[in-house]
Amino acid sequence: xxxTASASAPLLRAEHLSVRYNGRMALEDVSLSVGEGExxxxxxxxxxxxxxxxxxxxxxxxxxxxxxxxxxxxxxGYMPQRLAVDATLPLSVRxxxxxxxxxxxxxxxxxxxxxxxxxxxxxxxxxxxxxEMQRVLLARALLRQPDLLVLDEPxxxxxxxxxxxLFELIGxxxxxxxxxxxxxxxxxxxxxxxxxxxxxxxxxxCCQGRPEDVSRHPDYVALFGKHAEALxxxxxxxxxxxxxxxxxxxxxxxxxxxxxxxHDHGDHAHGDQxxxxxxxxxxxxxxxxxxxxxxxxxxxxxxxx
Length: 305
Description:
about 300 residues; alpha/beta; six-stranded mixed β-sheet; about 25% helix; globular
């Protein structure tokens, strides 16, 4: 039965979700919510169910038990964990961003400019570095004018400097648009200082709350080791800037022609190889579903379960 939420309700709420694949419990009794202007980050080891949870709240996976509620009429922008493009496919960024429907050129340019990738508009997707591809995927999600951004491993295949720049960009987008963000990440040393709420997942919720509280929780330490608290309080101090491709440049030279080179200190060009997670990804062993899937405005709040 569909329910209608008031404007003060969370953008997204999951209650007591469980998901079972072939007799194996992938998620058990998981509840969370995401409000306006809030960044909620899912962390956990490989196989913890992070991607399964994201797909379940998006409606791509049917829960075995529990319910998902979305605020009436919200728009969701989704950035998938992986997207492979065949090396032989002649596909520019302009065409790629138009695959899901006609988009005005000024809208494409605005979205790419917002993520610092305006220079990629007419480049081949396969020629993009890892950092540039992630920015293009983020721009694609922003074309939905989302109330809620769902980002599954948004800094994969990006070096540490590019990761810092992307996490800071996500924070800026949240502040500017006041959208909610549900984010999956393995990068404890970066993400814990850049999120409002942390959900520590290992098929069930081990702990959740503010980063400073979660980082001291015994279950968090048990999952990530004795140095986990030190990683969680890392703050990056800037004495430099990052170019649009993630490279380190002097402050004030972020968008100069010199900065727009294509050596990302570890980023990878995108051909027909799937970049995936550098550490193996979240192996949930369930149906993967169509990765490049967006949820537009819903006619009403949806309840699954």
